[in-house]
Amino acid sequence: MFPIHKRIAGQDGNTSRLPVSSGCEGFNYRTFRWTQTMLFAINEINGREDLLPNTDLGYVIYDSCFTISKAVEGTLTYLTGQDEAVPNYRCGNGAPLAALVGAGGSDLSIATARILGLYYFPQVSYSSSCSALQSKFQFPTFLRTIPNDKHQSRAMAQLVLHFGWTWVGTIAADDDYGKYGIKDFRSQVEEAGVCISFSETLPKVSSPEAIQRIVRTVVESSAKIIVVFSSDVDLSPLVQELLRHNVSERTWIASEAWVTSALINQPGVSSVLAGTLGFGVRSAHIPGLEQHLLDLDPYSDPLTEEFWETMFNCTLDYGKALRMAKDGVGERKGTWPRVAGGRPEGLCSGRELLAQLNNTYSDVSQLRITYSVYKAVYAVAHALHNLENCAPGGGPFHGNSCADISNFEPWQLMYYVKNVHFKVPHTDEEIFFENGDVEGYYDIINWSVDGNGEISYVTVGQYNGSAAPGSQMTIRNDSILWNSDRLQPPRSVCSENCPPGTRKGIRQGEPVCCFDCIPCADGEISNTTNARECFLCGEDHWSNDAHDACVPKIIEFLDFGEPLGITLIVISAFGALVTVSVGVVFVLHLGSPLVKANDSLLSFSLLFSLVVTFLCSIVFLGEPRHWSCMTSQVALALGFALCLSSIMAKSLVLMLRAQVLKTARSRAKAAAKAAKAAAEAAASSGGPDVIVTNTNHSSDLPAFTRPEVDALTFAQQRAVTAAATLVQAVACTVWLIILPPFPVKNTSAQNIKIILECDEGSVVFICCIFAYDILLALLAFIFAFLARKLEDHFSEAKCLTFGMLVFFIVWISFVPAYLSTRGKFMVAVQIFAILASSFGLLSCIFLPKCYVLLIKPERNTEEMMRPRAKPRDGSSTGTSASLATAATEVTATSASTNLDD
Asked: Which residues are registered as beta bridge partners of 742?
């Protein structure tokens, strides 16, 4: 059974009369070559002495017309032995029926195999590759010499994956061959991550609208790779429509049913189908077949006659030729038909030469399905040979019996067919059926365009389904000629690959192959193509600019050797040197009135504390260590505690002096008023002149009311300073023992950096310690501020007040500056605050004294330390070094009164 015609002729649909078998139209040269190959194989077998030497093979040829109904009709006719198909009834004589070779397409074989399976009748197919036919439950007697399509679908999937195509369109014929083939292909590729752009179905019945719709889909789709599972007959209308629309820049993946079909490979298709890759079944050269095809007798049977007439566009029927000539005469206005040598025009001579025609029938360059037909005939022949040569008593049937070659049942031959094992003549290919199938071997064929613009089939690889996984397909990429003569494979992706540093973001409602490439966030990387997610770098690492690798974070700390560190060291050293120089100046002038005016030891303790604060700022530099973290904070806290407590003691003494002077002035004013009142009273009474004297001397007053004696002695001032510093020292000691500061890696402050800094250990301790320093600063400022009106030639109270104001301004400004910086600049801001406050205290407190000691030594006298002249308002002024007594002021006042009198 062969699909010699492409379709059945049109029917009128009249149901008022007895239905008759439909005729067929559209002669197919390729399938007729298959038919002649079967005849050639039968003649070859009948001529052999080693194969069925005592039996000749006969045949009956049925035309399925590529239609299921005709295939079923032919099967029933074959089984019943009558021209009229009568189901389940046979009436015929002659040799027993052996097997059916056919029936062409997969859907035709499925229909026939269901019927033949009822009788357990052998069927050997040469081109029905549908994977559905592998089911022995549904098709128990079906075998084939063409590979199962599951191998082809797997081969197509591997080809698509081999070239990295992830966006593929599919077109299938509307039959079991196309549907099952595409279904298996899709399951293979979708599991591997390939997406199907579109899936179209070719109509079995002519439908221009459906073909145009498929062409629009192909044009509008961005898929450059299109897989087609179809026969050449079903695909031909689509190819013609693609040519009309000039659809190019597509690569087609062809199934074995059309990959070498001359019906598709027509002149002009190179613009559309050049570069096509497809899978062809195993090919072979069959010696003698070409000559057999060319030696065809045109009068041997009706099929051969039709072939001859179609091939040479003439008729072998003399009467038909004469009628055609007469019809032509009428058209030429009554002239008689021309007869050359007694033969009318249009009559075939029967001696036309097939060798002069270059068409599909005589083309033996790509014998693939033809070779499969050849193998199918030999499979049946070898099965019959094994049945004929069964040794009596050694048979496979009940009681070890054998079958009779002249009268056997189909099921008996079926046993031998499914167990046949032989080598094909001329090729030595071993044929055996495994569950009705042969091994899955394909040639990978490329449609290359030669210099004349014609397509030639070039084998560029092979696929062997029985090989080990990973080595099943071999393909020579450099031998492939792609569409538009490109040397590189085309790209067919819905979205380009996401490079490292990005991740795939799936588009809502679209296939997974359609995605957006989303850059990885800072601190995350992806180091593979098409990464589904970004990975977070480790704590000590950060993503590079490309976000494709984690690099170590920059380790940051204020180093000694960098310009900023060197600058701070120089400033700190300079401040300490200046402070030491001031101390040297004080030592050299230790006995001078200015130095003795206040406790010189407090001055030296203040200078020492400033040296500590200057130098402790250097400890903040460099990579934090355990010792440096503890030393820096403790030295700073203790240095400022000693500094501020010394200032507080000085300010306290000055404040007490001011309070004493204020009290003394109040008493002096009261005494002066009393004396004046007495003098006025005496004058008014006319008495003698009276000189009033103050008999209440200052030496008779208690110490705390005598202005020339300080309420706090030097020893008491030093005790206050030591006690205040000791409190801080105890707090720092407890801090260092319980929760000491320690170095840490700060990875959260800045993403790309690891900041090496000191963790204070306990926020409570650090706050308490520096809060204590702030308390000392406030007390010192309050005491100095209250003593600011203690006037003399050298006002130390004002110097202390300005020094504390500078101290507060610096540290108040430090807070927002510190909070707004990160990393090593926080340390720099802190050091600047320490240095600025230290320089402020040094300048405000000691610069005026150094100015007097070095520039104006004439002012460094006891007299200059005494009170200034009394202001005009009569209020007296005091000094920080020596004070006049209230009695002197009273005497001066009385004398002035007497003179006025």
From this structure: 759
pLDDT at 606 over 80: yes
Query: Lowest-confidence range among 539-553, 562-576, 790-804?
Result: 790-804
- Computed on alpha carbons and rounded to an integer, the radius of gyration of the chain in Å comes to 59
Element (H, E) at 653: helix 626-685
Number of residues in the chain: 901
Whose CA is closest to 116, among 102, 126, 130? 102
Tokens read off for 364: 């033996």
Pick from 558-562, 763-767, 853-857, 885-889: least confident: 885-889
Evaluate whether 264 touches 445 at the Cβ level (below 8 Å). Answer: no
384, 98 in Cβ contact below 8 A? yes
Q: Is 193 helix (H, G, I), strand (E, B) or coil?
A: coil
Q: What does the alpha-carbon distance between residue 709 and residue 712 come to, in Å, rounded to a whole number? A: 9
State the pairing for strand pair 225-229/277-281.
unpaired
Cβ neighbours for 577, distance < 8 A, ≥ 6 positions apart: none
Q: What are the φ and ψ backbone dihedral angles of 401, each rounded to 5 degrees?
A: -85, 165
Task: Assess contact for 75 and 50: CB atoms under 8 A.
Answer: no
Q: Average per-residue pLDDT in the chain?
A: 84
- Other Cβ atoms less than 10 A from the Cβ of 170: the count is 25
For tokens 């004589």, the residue is: 93
- Evaluate whether 1 touches 101 at the Cβ level (below 8 Å): yes
Of residues 196 and 561, which shows the higher confidence score? 196
Residue 281 is classified by DSSP as E
φ, ψ at 510 (rounded to 5°): -115, 160
- Classify strands 251-254 and 225-229 as parallel, antiparallel or unpaired: parallel
Cis peptide before 103 (omega within 30 of 0): yes
Handedness of CA 649, 650, 656, 659 (dihedral sign): negative
**Average pLDDT of the segment spanning 557-562:** 83
The pLDDT of residue 864 is: 67
Look at 193-202, 399-408, 761-770 and tell me which has the smallest mean pLDDT: 761-770
Report the 10 Å Cβ neighbour count for 548. Answer: 17
Q: How confident is residue 619, by pLDDT bands cut at 50, 70 and 90?
A: confident
